[in-house]
Amino acid sequence: MSSFLRKKLDILLKISYFCPMKVAEQIRKTIIMLPNDKIFGYADLSIRKKDYQTSAKALERLQKQGLIKKISKGIFYKPIKTVFGDLEPDDSEKLKPYLFKNGKRIAYITGESLYNQMNLTTQMAFRIKIASDRRINIEKGAIKAKSVKSYAKVTETNYMFLGFLDAIKDIKQIPDCTVASAVKFLSKRLEEFNDKKVDELIKYALLYPPRVRALLGALLENIGKKKKISPLKESLNPITIFRIGLKETDLPNIKNWYIL
Question: Helices 52-65 and 23-33: crossing angle, nearest 10°?
């Protein structure tokens, strides 16, 4: 939800505090302001906990009127009206309630679905993977998702770094993508990172398995971003060999990082 819309909803809540507007009327006015095809829950409606029971009845009436539709317990959307009937939100929108809590990101999409978005593969996953520090399993019609453990607490500022590191971690398992092709692709993406982003990436890489730290170090070194990679090198055991399936023609400095 945009900050502008959030401010308007907050104003509505303040008005309802000083002017005793009926809860049902407040909810209806708030929902009318929401964009169509967007998922929302109780938190988005600025409903106080003491009003939850009254709100549930109001939302049930709005469902019967066709203004909103229910996806799951406490999760709704405003359908887009067309001559062919009501349109549901797309799959990525339906997943948002599981990726955010009280407006804050707590999870992100990873695995084949993410690598498809990154253009590393053209394949789509039958079951979406959601990385989080809590269990998330979804079986909602065509939406099927399971949780995998994230290597760090997920936030809005770090989830893209974690997704990038996931791609390095899974580099041998990405469908329809050779390791050499993935290395070339990820190297190009790393070239776009400024020093601050490289620092952040390395900070989170230190939480990942050694093979991720080794390959990230090799990639950064190979594209000339060498200043900050010493923590990665120092974190590795020099007698451990990482068999990733690369040749020096794919990445010239693999021996520096104990990679084969």
Answer: 50
Main-chain phi, psi angles of 121, to 5 degrees:
-150, 155
- Residues 60-97 as b or e (16 or more Cβ within 10 Å = b): eebeeeeebeebeeebbbbbeeeeeeeebbeeeebbeb
Q: What's the predicted TM-score (pTM) here?
A: 0.75
The residue to which tokens 């190979």 are assigned: 222
- CA-CA distance, 40 to 21, in Å (whole number)? 21
222/217 Cα distance (integer angstroms): 8
Q: What is the pLDDT along the chain (260 residues), one digit of tens a residue?
A: 555 555 555 555 444 443 435 778 888 888 888 877 778 877 777 777 777 788 888 888 888 888 888 877 778 888 877 766 777 776 677 788 788 887 789 999 999 999 999 999 998 877 889 999 888 777 766 677 888 999 999 999 999 999 999 999 999 999 999 999 999 999 999 999 999 999 999 999 999 999 999 999 999 999 999 888 999 999 999 999 999 999 999 999 999 999 99
Neighbour count for residue 137 (Cβ, 10 Å)? 11
CA dist., res. 212 & res. 98, Å (int): 27
- Answer for the pair 108, 99: CB distance below 8 angstroms, yes or no: yes
Residue 203, C-beta contacts closer than 8 angstroms, at least 6 positions apart: none
